[in-house]
């Protein structure tokens, strides 16, 4: 293949300097370019087969406290791992906002083809967009607020994951304590029905008399089956939260360890909750970024202006140099559409923040009221428990001495089991409300330390 090379005509001068300059600039640009590195997707689910395989897990088969479950969830939850990578994206966007647009370098070489000229003509120019400089500070502040908003959103997601881990672990612990009661109640009624079936077969009783006991046994079986289904569902949810395989066993301690619950202190801290809740802080930062966007839209009404020097030489060696300017005429587009969108977005975020603030206070207050009601009901149930336990013990003694028929014995013992189950149910409901409140106020959870100004710095 023939090769072509641009050369000046004899006696017309040299063109090597512009060509060498452009080649050097091109080589410098290419030297600073990033290289592509592949990142293949996973081909198998990244789930740990057992707790000991999780980073930060204690010794194998060691029962986990609720606090340890929370720590493992914060370290290994798949959704949190993905969410934390958003920080790098936001940091990249902030870095991009700190960089001014590159100036533009233009030029051309015009070899003499015919005419009275004696040299090759050339021109070169350097230009910079001025409007990008005018909006630079506002864009940087908006990007910084957006980056901090992402960080606050991640902390809020950590609060939700930690609260869910607390609730699931506590429900499983209380459930493990409750199951023997369900099993004992079913076994008591099963033994009773076995004897009634023998009496029915011998003709010593009637189906009408047996029917209520069979209904009670069926209800006890359904209650136990429903309880086991709930426990299995809770186990699978906890495993998913920890990044474990569904069939992995999570050993738990016998008693849940939870942060101290002080309703009076929580009520007293509600006025300052907006300065501690990550979701409210994130909304405030988002509002700050939207406010900067309004500022940018106002500044962007300044007409497009491109400035820079330029130089040129014609075919007769006449060289000209001087400033070059390009001004956009704001005849049709005065950035009025972008300004309207920016103001509407800011107004929407303003209203959303006010609504979230009101909902937060109302939600915590409602849960505190529910917790007080459940606490009162639990106190009444506990006061009634000794009587039911004593009646069951006396019934067992009387039945053993043949002073009480089996039906009366089963009824009194079943009543005791029902009272125990009621207490366990109320305890679990109360703990669930307390955990929900502690999650909403951030008791024992990661904090976001920000000044009131939306453009402040964030520390974990």
UniProtKB/TrEMBL annotation:
Question: Which protein family is it in?
Answer: Belongs to the outer membrane factor (OMF) (TC 1.B.17) family.
InterPro entries in the cross-refs:
MdtP/NodT-like (IPR010131), OMP_efflux (IPR003423)
**Would you say which domain of life the source belongs to?**
Bacteria
Q: Which Pfam families match?
A: OEP
Q: What is this protein called?
A: Efflux transporter outer membrane subunit
Q: Which PANTHER family match?
A: BLR4935 PROTEIN, OUTER MEMBRANE CATION EFFLUX PROTEIN
